[in-house]
Amino acid sequence: MGALSGDFSRKTPLANYLSGSPRIAFRVFALLVAAAMVWAWSVRDYRYLEAESGIGYALGIVGASMMLILLLYPLRKRVRFMRGWLKLRSWFSLHMLLGVLGPLCILLHCNFRLGSTNSNVALASMLLVAGSGLIGRYLYGKFHFGLYGQQVGLQQLKTDLDYIYRQFETAALADPRRQELQALYDGCSAIIESQRDQVSFRQLLRQRRGLRRMTRRTLATISVDDSTAVARRQLEDHRRALAALLDKLAGLRLFERLFGLWHVVHIPVFLLMIVTVIVHIFVVHWY
Q1: Where are the beta strands (DSSP E) in the chain?
Q2: How far is C-alpha 121 from the chain's CA centre?
Q3: Is 225 within 8 Å of 177 (Cβ atoms)?
Q4: pLDDT at residue number 199
Q5: Could you give phi then psi for residue 10, rounded to 5 degrees?
Q6: What share of the chain is helix, strand, coil (3-state, %, to 5)?
Q7: Which of 214, 235, 284, 287 has the fewest CB atoms found within 10 Å of its own CB?
Q8: Within 10 A of 86 (CB to CB), how many other CB atoms are there?
Q9: Strand, helix or coil at 226?
Q10: Which pLDDT tens digit goes with each residue over 196-241?
Q11: Which residue positions in the chain have pLDDT lower than 50?
């Protein structure tokens, strides 16, 4: 048998499973936000920021404006005359960005302190929405390629699984390893076929646990007899791609359903936050 074949350039569908740049950018952004929060917490007793005046007051206006602008994303999806306003992907990017920066500005605005009842309710609802948004972002990523990528489908997973399995077939794998890989492939194919129909939550959880155990056991033992650097690098690329593909498959239908349930909860909580922010602004400026 020869070395692994295949090209993982951007033209290859498996590039979806190997791309790491969106994840790196997300981590850098999260690190910057965390650093800003740590700094603000460390200097809160110096009262550089006051909610009633100066930069603290301005941050409150900016943060509240950002949270109100978040409403434009669901409106863009549902209101007909707004459908020509930029691409939906751009609105989604803005929604994600402001969903983090808005709460950050509000936390700086209040200097990590509680105030009046109406401001506390507004702060609590905003933090609830922000936390809910992070959960939604996690669920969304489980059945999409990256943050702005296309939705993953069972047929695409089956096509990509067939492709990468053919790449492993050309590798110099020992017979026991080849048999384990065949068993993994057959198990994945059976799961894909079963999930084309309605499947219970319990069955989805059971399939996810079983597939993850089988994946860890099989991928940990895959190796090639050819010791060239090219063969080892290609093997590692294919193994990483297969691991990412199987991770998508293990939770695809499960996380799709959880995302649907999350959406039912997130929208009312978001609207509640809008109301509490408006009430807070009204009370602060008119009483």
Answers
A1: none
A2: 28
A3: no
A4: 82
A5: -65, -20
A6: 75, 0, 25
A7: 287
A8: 12
A9: coil
A10: 888 888 888 888 888 888 888 777 766 655 556 666 777 778 888 8
A11: 1-10
CA 20/CA 27 separation, integer angstroms: 11
User: Exposed e or buried b for every residue in 185-219, given b needs 16+ CB within 10 A?
Assistant: bebbeebbeebeeebeeeebeebbeebeebbeebb
Could you identify the residue written with the tokens 């997130």?
Answer: 266
Separation CA 171–CA 97 (nearest Å): 44
Q: Identify the pLDDT of residue 178.
A: 76
CA distance 6 to 216: 23
On whether the CB atoms of residues 37 and 104 are closer than 8 A, the answer is: yes
Structure tokens at 66: 């950002």
User: Chain centroid to CA 265: how far?
Assistant: 18
Where does 94-202 show beta strands of DSSP type E?
none
Q: What are phi and psi of 53, to 5 degrees?
A: -160, 170
How far apart CA 157 and CA 248 sit, in angstroms, is: 8
Tokens of 15: 């590039």
Spatial distance between the Cα atoms of 83 and 272, rounded to a whole number of angstroms: 25
Q: Distances from the Cα of 106 to the Cαs of 59, 95, 275, in angstroms?
A: 7, 16, 16
